[in-house]
Here is the input.
Amino acid sequence: MSSARALRPALAEAGILANKIAGSRDFSKQIMDAAQQSKPDAVRRLIVSAGIRKNVQITYNPDGVTIDLAEQGCCKVSLSMRWR
Here is the structure.
């Protein structure tokens, strides 16, 4: 129960980020372009600009991106999206 309670803020931020990516073609293209050009600092800057404050870990490959939003020492929410 305590882990589930602690996960709520990360879930809220995951929703904010998903809404931003889904609602802005320009924003989603910027993330995809920066990731495909191997510019992790640019990807992180874009994610933070969406209002994300959690500990963020970003991994990407030619197929897509995975964004992990972590609660310290507890749990994390992962968003995995394929490029299209």
The chain has one domain: 2-82. The mean pLDDT is 91. The longest helix spans residues 2-23.
